[in-house]
Write a structure and sequence with these properties.
Helix content is about 35%, strand content about 20%. By secondary structure, the protein is α+β, with helices and mostly antiparallel strands. It has one domain. The strands form two sheets. Strands 3-1-4-5 form a four-stranded antiparallel β-sheet, covered by helices on one side. Strands 2-6 form a two-stranded antiparallel sheet.
């Protein structure tokens, strides 16, 4: 027995198998994570490219009648990569690039930072209400800056959610803003309303 112990101490047969068994789970999880990340980046770049093209098509005169066809092309492009993707589209029109995501102006008479108590505000989008975003829904008119947002939701392609607790769905959002072509003049009237 004593002669066996020194021989075992120097025997390295089978060590590679044990080392691989220790390293394999880490390697497999790293590869799955890399594949998942790469897939989502590729899907995101396809989405961004598709909405860039769609936004350019949306800026021409008469594009309002082709909105469904433009959205269908974006959906088709994205679903060639992610067949289970569900897409939602929003378009918000602004009179200028500087107006994007800006609230409607109001006179803060009571200095509480809230449009209330009958304070006057400029109704930039014409809906009769004070809004924290002055844009109006839709493709807008001539010379409007239009923010085009597409959100894509799909099931995760690699089973990371089972192992590390990430969501089983991926949500990607792509946005672009372009100015509509000057195909006509707009008569804009900003009305002054009162906050409720």
């Amino acid at each position: 027995m004593r002669s066996l112990l020194p021989r075992l101490k120097h025997d390295s047969r089978g060590a590679a198998m044990v080392e691989f068994a220790l390293i394999a789970p880490v390697l497999v999880f790293s590869l799955i994570g890399l594949f998942d990340l790469s897939y989502n980046i590729y899907a995101g770049s396809m989405l961004q490219g598709a909405i860039q093209q769609a936004a350019r098509e949306s800026t021409i005169e008469g594009a309002a009648g082709t909105q469904a066809a433009i959205d269908a092309r974006v959906t088709e492009i994205v679903q060639t990569i992610v067949p289970s993707a569900t897409l939602t589209f929003t378009r918000t029109a602004y009179t200028d690039f500087a107006d994007i995501s800006r609230p409607e102006d109001f006179t803060d008479s009571d200095t509480d930072g809230v449009c209330n108590n009958g304070e006057p505000f400029e109704d930039a989008n014409g809906n009769g209400l004070w809004d924290s975003d002055r844009g109006s829904v839709g493709m807008g008119g001539a010379r409007d800056a239009v923010l085009y947002t597409v959100t894509s939701t799909y099931d995760r392609q690699f089973p990371l959610n089972n192992f590390i607790g990430v969501s089983d769905q991926v949500t990607l959002q792509a946005r672009t803003v372009l100015r509509n072509q000057p195909f006509g003049m707009q008569d804009r009237e900003i009305t002054v309303e009162s906050c409720s």
